[in-house]
Automatic annotation (TrEMBL):
Annotated organism of origin: Ornithinimicrobium cryptoxanthini
Name of the molecule in the record: Cation-translocating P-type ATPase
UniProt cross-references to SUPFAM superfamilies, sorted A to Z: Calcium ATPase, transduction domain A (SSF81653), Calcium ATPase, transmembrane domain M (SSF81665), HAD-like (SSF56784)
NCBIfam families given in the database record: ATPase-IB_hvy, ATPase_P-type
Keyword annotations of the record: ATP-binding, Cell membrane, Membrane, Metal-binding, Nucleotide-binding, Translocase, Transmembrane, Transmembrane helix
Gene3D superfamilies xref list: Calcium-transporting ATPase, cytoplasmic domain N, Calcium-transporting ATPase, cytoplasmic transduction domain A, HAD superfamily/HAD-like
InterPro entries linked to this entry: ATPase_P-typ_cyto_dom_N, ATPase_P-typ_P_site, ATPase_P-typ_TM_dom_sf, ATPase_P-typ_transduc_dom_A_sf, ATPase_P-type_domA, Cation_Transport_ATPase_IB, HAD-like_sf, HAD_sf
Subcellular location: Cell membrane
Residues annotated as domain P-type ATPase A: 120-219
Positions of region (Disordered): 624-650
UniProt record similarity statement: Belongs to the cation transport ATPase (P-type) (TC 3.A.3) family. Type IB subfamily.
The keyword Translocase belongs to this UniProt entry's keyword annotation: yes
């Protein structure tokens, strides 16, 4: 019974029944010589195929909307009235087939959403009172321990509390290579374990998971109208009544009712109406598969116009995790280990972000950093002064050391030269002094992402005229990073409000600006930009909901990929408009100069609809970006804790 019910309410029921009635009519009139029965069956075919069309037209009229269904309804009813039963049946039958094919192919363009929904887990195995209990995934309670075995879906968002394994996160980030997971790593609902056994503490369940937020965002985005789509809706609202008026005028002037009805059929703007939405749905769907969430058609169109990209430095062009890069002893009686240990012990009482890499490097080198200094005095904008074993140790910039020594350190050529060279190389130098004596210089640097240079090059390839770095860091460091990644302009020493002004300045110059940042200190600039882009948004609900584009992977190359996708989608929309308008123009000429009947007109019209949909579906194909030369040069992008350079003074 269920299968029968499904078939009766399926998309192909109406065209199949109508088609069988048409065949029966032709058989009756031509083979059995029963013309009357042939006419009755032909009218029945028109009624079966036309009834859903008339109902939709009536509902649309009730909502004060004049659409394509009204044109077909008028043409079919008119054809029946004047005795053109074959034309009425053919038009409605072809329209029904076209509608079924359109529905089927449109569902395919939404395949990304269907795939996301399909990966949503159904059940979870949780530990309750020491026992494994299988429950619906939506009924897991936040904080419960969920067991994830090899080959199963992760049912919740959470943090690994035990075990280890690898997980395929393609459904969230678009990355097909499994990711290794261990204690304290995040996992996401809908991802699949490829090895290992994990115990996961649930942090997000049901509608609160990253997957659920992505599905919700893609649903909204695919339904959101672009500016062009909104224009097409307004155009159709005027176009359809104009066609009806034109058909009436032609009918009155030529006294040819068949011609008037044929004009109604061939002028249907079906392909034109669907030309934009189908491209948007396909483009956003392709992006979702690749880990690029685009908020809607309007933002997709705007993204295609991007010709300036503003990038934050820390956490975007760089890893956001400073590391020790240089230890330079400048005192005859002090070696590298003593210099590093002294700096680390002083920084042990500091809350400054640059203290962590110094302490971690000392610990990794086996140098004891035990306890806190006897006294710690942060000096804002300069560094820190600490008392260690009765000695006064200062770690900071030249201005701090000058104040400690009581004279101008610029006279010490060695110190000034090392500081200058390190800053020019993109590192942040810190002079270490004990009791007024300079011991040496240590330097840290935020590691440049390996794909930063290639990302900038690809943005230029995709038509972006200017890539600008906006950073709160000092000028020498910013320029050193910029030189390595190839950005066009650098603005350093900026506060959040300065970044906002920089974006506004680019807009005043006529650029369409995309701002890429972490969404916190960059929030004002992200909001001001034409397109705000959040990077590495997997697991960050706020970023997914607020960003115009959310890149689910922490991968810079996804940015030019998003720009390329937007441009291809808009080009696809334009192609579809040309196809739709060209078809209508050719058919109109064919009717006016003879040769195009009502049935032929509807057939060509439905073919044009399918051509438009097929063209849009090309966007669903995964496009391979070329593999460029990755940036591997530059000390700031290649050193690790264990590879901290030791620069000996000349």
């Amino acid at each position: 019974m269920n299968k029968v019910h499904e078939w009766l309410h399926g998309r192909w029921t109406v065209p199949v029944v109508s088609g069988l009635l048409i065949l029966a009519s032709l058989a009756s009139s031509r083979l059995l010589d029963a013309a009357t029965w042939g006419d009755i069956l032909m009218v029945a075919a028109a009624v079966v195929a036309g009834t859903p069309v008339v109902i939709k037209a009536w509902n649309a009229l009730s909502a004060k909307v004049i659409g394509i269904d009204l044109l077909v309804s008028i043409a079919a009813i008119g054809a029946v009235i004047i005795g053109e039963y074959w034309e009425a049946a053919a038009v409605t039958f072809l329209f029904a087939i076209g509608h079924a094919l359109e529905s089927a192919t449109l569902n395919k363009t939404r395949s990304a959403l269907a795939e996301l929904i399909a990966v949503a887990p159904d059940v979870a195995v949780v530990l309750r009172d020491g026992e494994q209990v299988e429950v619906p995934a939506a009924e897991v309670i936040t904080g419960e321990t969920v067991l994830v075995k090899n080959g199963t879906k992760v049912p919740v968002d959470g943090v690994v509390s035990g075990g280890a394994g690898s997980i395929d996160e393609a459904s969230i980030t678009g990355e097909s290579i499994p990711v290794e997971k261990a204690t304290d790593d995040k996992v996401f609902a809908g991802t699949i374990t490829t090895s290992g056994f994990l115990q996961v503490t649930a942090t997000g369940v049901g509608a609160d998971t990253t997957l659920a937020r992505i599905i919700h965002r893609v649903e909204e985005a695919q339904d959101a109208k672009a500016r062009t789509a909104a224009f097409m809706d307004r155009f159709s609202a005027w176009y359809t009544p104009a066609i009806i008026v034109m058909a009436i005028i032609f009918g009155l002037v030529t006294r040819d009712i068949v011609l008037a009805l044929t004009l109604l059929v061939i002028a249907c703007p079906g392909a034109l109406v669907i030309s934009i939405p189908v491209s948007i749905v396909a483009g956003i769907g392709r992006g979702a598969k690749d880990g690029i969430l685009i908020k809607g058609g309007e933002f997709l169109e705007t993204s295609a116009k991007i010709d300036a990209v503003a990038l934050d430095k820390t956490g975007t062009l760089t890893e956001g995790r400073p590391q020790l890069t240089d230890v330079v002893p400048l005192h005859a009686d002090v070696d590298r280990d003593e210099l590093l240990q002294t700096a680390a012990r002083a920084e042990a009482g500091s809350e400054h972000p640059l203290a962590r890499p110094i302490i971690e490097a000392a610990t990794a080198a086996g140098l004891p950093v035990v306890g806190l200094p006897e006294h710690t005095e942060p000096v804002p904008g300069k560094g820190i002064v600490a008392t260690i074993d009765g000695h006064r140790v200062a770690v900071g910039n030249l201005a701090l050391i000058e104040s400690e020594q009581g004279h101008d350190t610029a006279d010490d050529a060695r110190v000034a030269q090392v500081v200058q060279e390190l800053a020019a190389a993109g590192r942040t130098p810190m002079v270490v002094a004990r009791d007024g004596q300079v011991l040496g210089v240590v330097a840290v640097a935020d590691q440049i992402r390996t794909d930063a240079k290639e990302m900038v090059a690809r943005l230029h390839e995709h038509g972006v005229k200017k890539v600008i770095m906006l950073t709160g860091d000092i000028e020498p460091v910013a320029r050193a990073v910029a030189a390595q990644v190839g950005v066009d302009e650098v603005r350093a020493g900026l506060l959040p409000e300065d970044k906002l002004e920089a974006v506004a300045d680019l807009q005043r110059q006529g650029y369409t600006v995309a701002m890429v940042g972490d969404g916190v200190n960059d929030a004002p600039a992200l909001a001001t930009a034409d397109i705000g882009v959040a990077m590495g948004a997997a697991g960050t609900g706020v970023a997914i909901e607020t960003a115009d584009i959310a890149l689910m992977r922490d991968n810079l190359l996804k940015l030019p990929e998003a720009v390329s996708l937007a441009r291809r989608t808009v080009n696809n929309m334009r192609q579809n408009i040309v196809i739709a308008l060209g078809t209508v123009a050719v058919l109109l000429a064919g009717v006016l100069f003879g040769g195009v009947t009502m049935a032929i007109g509807m057939l060509v019209h439905e073919i044009s609809v399918l051509v438009v949909i097929g063209n849009a579906m090309r966007l669903l194909r995964r496009r391979k970006e070329r593999t460029g030369t990755r940036s591997t040069d530059g000390t700031g992008s290649s050193l690790t804790h264990d590879e901290a350079r030791v620069t000996q003074p000349a």
